[in-house]
Design a protein that fits this description.
three-stranded antiparallel sheet; Arc Repressor Mutant, subunit A; 3 strands; 110 residues; 4 helices; alpha+beta
Amino acid sequence: MAKEKPDLVYGTLDMLILKALQHDARHGLAIADRIQQMSKDILRVEQGSLYPALYRLEAQGWIKAEWGLSDNNRKARYYKLTAAGRKQLASEQEHWSRITKGIDLVLSGA
């Protein structure tokens, strides 16, 4: 029986995209691949969710897009983290850490 891919927790996609862009500029497919790779194939981001999120993050000034050529010589938009995006990523990671700690405490019966 094949493993079912879990749905992303609501509100986490932006944080995952920012994290995937923390060190390198990437095009959309490479961002989705990086998230899947970092999660050891547990998480998969569908294009229908990815591109609206990228446009939203760009509009908020957390990422910047530039045209470039992909590995297969196709024109692609490459996204990179801005200074505001780095600050937002740190904030979201801290928030996620507090939330998951609280959930863990509830689930452990503490």
